[in-house]
Design goal:
Elements (H helix, E strand, L loop, with lengths): L2 E11 L5 E5 L5 E11 L5 E7 L9 E8 L4 E10 L4 E6 L5 E10 L1
Antiparallel strand pairs: 1-8, 2-7, 3-6, 3-8, 4-5, 4-7
Length: 108
């Protein structure tokens, strides 16, 4: 099983409607190691990240209504394991104000 450290998504803007950010390929396990979010606006913004459902579905939220200050940045590190077909979704309060970048390891 080769392990590949890679950029899984982004940089891309989060949107005001929940959208898929990353889907684990077939016959693959993914470990999300870092989620980087940058607020490029002069006002506070919030975002949510979901697993296997809309980012607005409370029971599936990894991060719920996480608030970033004006021009703020957050790096969320962890070890979130996704099986084949699992996916991450994201949503924010204002389109084009938050940029997300996701990195991790894929094993096939």
């Amino acid at each position: 099983m080769p392990d590949t450290l890679k950029r899984l998504a982004g940089p891309q803007h989060l949107t005001v409607a929940s959208a898929t950010l990353y889907t684990t390929p077939a016959a693959t396990t993914t470990v999300i190691r870092n989620l980087h979010v940058c607020n490029t606006s002069a006002s506070a913004q919030t975002f949510s990240i979901g697993l296997n459902a809309s980012a607005t579905t409370v029971a599936n939220q990894l991060f719920a209504s996480y608030q970033l200050p004006p021009n703020g940045v957050v790096d969320l590190s962890g070890c979130w394991v996704l099986g084949a077909g699992d996916y991450l979704t994201g949503v924010c309060t204002n389109a084009t104000t938050l940029t997300v970048y996701i990195s991790g390891v894929e094993s096939s």
